Amino acid sequence: MSWTLLADGVVAILLVVTIVYVRRFSKHITAIRDSRSEFEKLIGDLTKSTDQAASHLHQFKVTAEVAGRDLQARVERTQGLTTEFGKIGEDLKLLTERAESAAGRLEAVIAKSRHIAAASAPTPIAAVPPAPAVELPEEEDDRKVASLSALSGLR
C-alpha cells in the first residue's frame, strides 16, 4: 500500500501543478483575447494609412507627369523662340552692316562736298547746291529689299 499511496500523492502533486499552470495559461489567453480588439483596430488603422499613402502617391505621380509635360512643352517653345531670335539677330546684323556701309558712304560724300564747298568761293549757305544723290548698285538694293521683306514676315 505504500506504493499506491506514494503514486497517488505524486499524481495529486502533478495535478495541482497542472491546475496552477492551466490557470496561468488561461489568464494569458484572456489577456490576448482582450487585446485582440485593440490589435484589429491597429491593423485597420494601418490599412487605412496604407490606402491613403497609395492614393497620395498616385496623385503625386499624376501631378509629376502633368508638370513634366508642361515643362517639356515650355522647353520646346523656348527652343523655337531661340531659333527665331537667332534668325532675327542675323537679320539685324545684316541691317547694321548695311547701315554702317551706307553711313560710311554718306560721310565720304559729306566730306567731299565740304571739301568742294571750302575750295570754292565763299557763298551764302542758301546758294550751296544740294549734295548729289548717292546711287547704290542695283544688286545691293535687291538684297536690302529681300532682308526687309524677311523681317516683315517675322511680325
Task: Describe the overall structure.
The protein is an all-alpha fold and 155 residues long. It has one domain. Helix content is 87%, strand content 0%. The chain has 2 helices and no strands. The protein is rod-shaped, with a radius of gyration of 52 Å. It starts with a helix and ends with a helix. The model has no long low-confidence stretch (mean pLDDT 82).
Major sheet: size, sense and barrel closure?
A: none
Structure annotation, total helices: 2
Query: What overall form do the CA principal axes indicate?
Result: rod-shaped
Seen as an oligomer or otherwise, the chain set is single chain
Report a brief summary of the structure.
The chain is mostly helical. Helix content is 87%, strand content 0%.
What is the topological layout?
Layout (H helix, E strand, L loop, with lengths): L1 H118 L18 H17 L1
Helix pairs in contact: 1-2
What labels describe this entry?
rod-shaped; 155 residues
